[in-house]
Amino acid sequence: MKMNSIDQRNFWGWPGAKNLAYAYFVLGIPSFAWFAFVYAGADYWTGRHQHRVPLYHSAELSIPLIPATTVFYNSLHLIYAVAPFILRTRPEMNALAIVWFLMTLTGGIFFLIIPFEPGFPPPDPANMGIWRGMYEFADNANLRFNCCPSLHVAWGVATLDVYARSAPRTARVLLWSWAAGLSLSTLFLHQHHVIDVVGGLVLALWGSRVLYPGFCGRYVLSH
Predict the structure, then answer these.
(1) Domain coverage including residue 78
(2) Which of 152, 162, 10, 145 is nearest to 95 (CA)?
(3) Domain presence at residue 203
(4) Using CA atoms in the order 155, 157, 221, 95, what is the torsion angle rounded to 10 degrees?
């Protein structure tokens, strides 16, 4: 069956049971397994030595802790989950999975070359209020090292930028606002520093604006 160009379809739609299973199991599980391998592996090797490269300014330590931004931070999981409902052809899904793979590999290399950890002191759980559970969930998953570039920013922003390609104007504004909130949440939860976010944004744009169109070919919007 011939596929329609994505500029001739609705932004959101049912991908079909086969494509849904393909996205979550054939692509999703290996993608997250690869991420876990690289991310945990880099953290492990960095922890075996004492060399650190401080890449933040002391002024950044005055950035306030805003626990409520954990909603944006943890929304990364929702960003992944909706992928097959927006990218409903396998070429698009495959392209995004390859982008995730290459961004993770690139991030892992940088983690080993410039190892450092956030300079923020551990937060007092009493100050987290109703957001404590969500914060601890995110904080535990982040491990200790692996700061620059922020893969949290890279994966989230690249994916949202890809979604924005086929979105109507209002949806694009919402998606880019989501990306901004996600990026800022890494600072306001004291998980990353400014250089980490900048590095993540550069990595994201490389993934969404260079890699994705190349791998996806004719199914990517040209505008």
Answers:
(1) 13-219
(2) 162
(3) yes
(4) 0
Residue 120 lies in a domain: yes
Neighbour tally for 171: CB within 10 Å = 15
Which amino acid does the sequence have at 155? W
Domain assignment present for residue 8? The answer is no
Closest by CA position to 84, among listed 23, 9, 29: 23
Domain assignment present for residue 3? The answer is: no
Distance CA 97, CA 106 (A): 14
In Å, what is the CA distance from 213 to each residue of 78, 91, 167, 201?
A: 23, 11, 16, 17
pLDDT in tens, 54-105: 899 999 999 999 999 999 999 999 999 999 999 999 999 999 999 999 999 9
Total number of domains in the chain:
1
Q: What is the pLDDT of residues 162-187, one digit of tens each?
A: 999 989 999 999 999 999 999 999 99
Nearest to 208 by CA among 179, 169, 181: 179
CB-count burial class (<10 Å; 0-12, 13-18, 19+) for 196: buried
Task: Please tell me the distance from the alpha carbon of residue 88 to that of residue 85, in angstroms, as a whole number.
Answer: 6
